[in-house]
Amino acid sequence: xxxxxxxxxxxxxxxxxxxxxxxxxxxxxxxxxxxxxxxxxxxxxxxxxxxxxxxxxxxxxxxxxxxxxxxxxxxxxxxxxxxxxxxxxxxxxxxxxxxxxxxxxxxxxxxxxxxxxxxxxxxxxxxxxxxxxxxxxxxxxxxxxxxxxxxxxxxxxxxxxxxxxxxxxxxxxxxxxxxxxxxxxxxxxxxxxxxxxxxxxxxxxxxxxxxxxxxxxxxxxxxxxxxxxxxxxxxxxxxxxxxxxxxxxxxxxxxxxxxxxxxxxxxxxxxxxxxxxx
Length: 278
Fold this sequence. Notes:
Blueprint: E1 3-6, E2 42-52, E3 55-64, E4 72-76, H1 87-97, E5 100-104, H2 118-136, E6 143-148, H3 150-161, E7 166-170, H4 176-187, E8 192-195, H5 206-209, E9 217-222, H6 230-239, E10 245-250, H7 266-276
Parallel strand pairs: 1-8, 4-5, 4-6, 6-7, 7-9, 9-10
Antiparallel strand pairs: 2-3, 3-5
Helix pairs in contact: 2-3
């Protein structure tokens, strides 16, 4: 029996039994997970931005309390997250790097309106850069893009279309084909075939876009990441033409929880942002 599963660019690890067909649509790539927390040491400002006439995006601008005209980090989270779900990390990121952090919910996520698609996300990130950044970054301080998992596709897209002071990729995704091959091997069913639906497999993939990104690059990954394996990050690192780039692999690190480990690369991240923020 031929078993066909349709897979998008997302961290989808799915067990499929013989005789069962599971179809993934573009909507399955996005699955927000609610959570709440209490921030400390930062100021959080709600940000509202009209992506289109009938679609409003909402997010947070997080500023460390003791910062003076800091650089700006645009953070793009993973598939099952929202601004609230990423909140603890966003506040720590701002404190540790002494940078402001702007994170907007994707369409259909958190408090943002609309339906999430890759075309919509790409439209929104460029409009955010072009129209929202002058409002939240009036002094024109250095702007960085930081993507995690699914968010690495957004960060790479932005970096290939707009100038940035630096790019950080954690748990990078290279392409639909690479991810489908990895998923097949992870599940271990040799008879399975994974195909992207619609135009998702036809669009330009991150591994191609990174070849046009001249901005400094920092790739971070755990060497036990089973969702986005280390070879993806290595491929993105090797494909980058950046004059300055670095690859950090955390021994024993997995897809989640990397920044709460004792050996989390906060020093390297601080140094990267500090070096390119001037």
